[in-house]
Design brief:
- By secondary structure, the chain is of the alpha+beta class.
- It has a domain at 21-138 and 277-436: Peroxisomal Thiolase, Chain A, domain 1.
- Helices cover 34% and strands 17% of the residues.
- It is built from 14 helices and 12 strands.
- The strands form 2 sheets. Strands 1, 2, 3, 4, 5, 8, 9, 10, 11 and 12 form a 10-stranded mixed sheet that branches. Strands 6-7 form a two-stranded antiparallel ribbon.
- The longest helix is centred in the middle third of the chain and has 20 residues, at 205-224.
- Its main location: endoplasmic reticulum.
- This is Trifunctional enzyme subunit beta, mitochondrial.
- Keywords: Acetylation, Acyltransferase, Endoplasmic reticulum, Fatty acid metabolism, Lipid metabolism, Membrane, Mitochondrion, Mitochondrion inner membrane, Mitochondrion outer membrane, Transferase, Transit peptide.
- Residues 298-437 form the Thiolase C-terminal domain.
């Protein structure tokens, strides 16, 4: 039916025999550069702020929530199920179960779609999904040899056994292990991979700097115009109330050109100015079955429609998730690129976004890598990340997915569009895309 020429409004993305699922609303804490106002908190504190903000914004009775799911990437060892700790801290019923998911930069996406699955299968009516990341404090471990020594020492009973264990100690045992933003399977850092990807698609340093400047300028404009309505203020204990993202810094191309390559020296093109920065923040959204939301008197913001996860080779296609996922999710929904009014793609690096654009605009890539006859085509820039993106707003790994969906939903409402497309790449060579449909006014 979608091959015939029809007006845009005729398409229906509702599935027979499957409940319609809506986002009532979603919020996030301000996204802050790591090492700023959130630096003394723990991840569940930031997650709790997002949950509390969601409760205030929606006035949803706490006992109505059937389930809570949060995404996170770098686990705080003490709160490995951070969703549960944050939910208890935010005053949700202790009878509401909560679990935590991880899927690199698409962890919040996974939290959302897990919630969608629970509702679609009739197990739940009301789910809160979100994500959190606190890069200000990460678990730094002793070396494996030192950990083994400590565990052996713990088991040693007699003085003799203890002395025997201690005698095995060497000074190099004290070198710590830091977590890295690197692929386990290839040992390559993500920035290095992004730089190689940019080179493979012949994306210049200037193009990357220009795209980053666009992101920061649009984010600044959106912030100044009050369009980032998903941000809720957070009174940080012992500090001031934080009200806005603090990583938005429109610079000049001249200033940006001065920076040295961050990963591949001296000829690389990926720099601190055209990459997303380490960020602290959390997001949360209220997802319901449509009939439940209406019965409770809510006016939902958007429908969550088809979604798709994809996976590629983590060596050479680590960050091409959006290119692979976009045509698949559009086909699944019976839509074309022309039907999409708002694109919200995760910006890990300028080079990654621009490489995805080049891949999407290449018949050769489509034929040789994607098994498609023709290219999917470019998202029009005037519909793309209009209120800034991860390069400027920030990217708390576990929280970005919900920000993308809320940005799409809020933009559709503001601009009067019908369909939004959210897409993101993630470590492991994985990716996600989802169709968001504006709820009729």
């Amino acid at each position: 039916w979608h091959h015939s020429v029809q007006t845009k409004t005729k398409k229906t993305l509702a599935k027979p025999n499957i409940r319609n699922i809506v986002v009532v609303d979603g919020v996030r804490t301000p996204f802050l550069l790591s090492g700023t106002s959130y630096k003394d908190l723990m991840p569940h504190d930031v997650a709790r702020a997002a949950l509390t903000g969601l409760l205030h914004r929606t006035s949803v009775p706490k006992e109505v929530v059937d389930y809570i799911i949060f995404g996170t990437v770098i686990q705080e060892v003490k709160t490995s199920n951070v969703a549960r700790e944050a939910a208890l801290g935010a005053g949700f019923s202790d009878k509401t179960p909560a679990h935590t998911v991880t899927m690199a930069c698409i962890s919040a996406n996974q939290a959302m779609t897990t919630g969608v699955g629970l509702i679609a299968s009739g197990q739940c009516d009301v789910v809160v999904a979100g994500g959190v990341e606190l890069m200000s404090d990460i678990p730094i471990r002793h070396s494996r040899k030192m950990r083994k020594l400590m565990l052996d020492l713990n088991k040693a009973k007699s003085v003799g056994q203890r002395l025997s264990v201690i005698s095995k100690f060497r000074l190099n045992f004290l070198a710590p292990e830091l977590p890295a933003v690197a692929e386990f399977s290839t040992s390559e850092t993500m920035g290095h991979s992004a730089d190689r990807l940019a080179a493979a698609f012949a994306v210049s340093r200037l193009e990357q700097d220009e795209y980053a400047l666009r992101s920061h300028s649009l984010a600044k404009k959106a912030q100044d115009e009050g369009l980032l309505s998903d941000v809720v203020p957070f009174k940080v204990p012992g500090k001031d109330t934080v009200t806005k993202d603090n990583g938005i810094r429109p610079s000049s191309l001249e200033q940006m050109a001065k920076l040295k390559p961050a990963f591949i020296r001296p000829y690389g093109t990926v720099t601190a100015a055209n990459s997303s920065f380490l960020t602290d923040g959390a997001s949360a959204m209220l997802i319901m079955a449509e009939e439940k939301a209406l019965a409770m008197g809510y006016k939902p913001k958007a429908y969550l429609r088809d979604f798709m996860y994809v996976s590629q080779d983590p060596k050479d296609q680590l960050l091409l998730g959006p290119t692979y996922a976009t045509p698949k999710v559009l086909e699944k929904a019976g839509l074309t690129m022309n039907d999409i009014d708002a694109f919200e793609f995760h910006e890990a690096f300028s080079g990654q976004i621009l490489a995805n654009f080049k891949a999407m605009d290449s018949d050769w890539f489509a034929q040789n890598y994607m098994g498609r006859k023709t290219k999917i085509g470019l998202p029009p820039l005037e519909k793309f990340n209009n209120w800034g993106g991860s390069l400027s707003l920030g990217h708390p790994f576990g929280a970005t997915g919900c920000r993308l969906v809320m940005a799409a939903a809020n933009r559709l409402r503001k601009e009067g569009g019908q369909y939004g497309l959210v897409a993101a790449c993630a470590a492991g060579g994985q990716g996600h895309a989802m169709i968001v449909e504006a709820y009729p006014k």
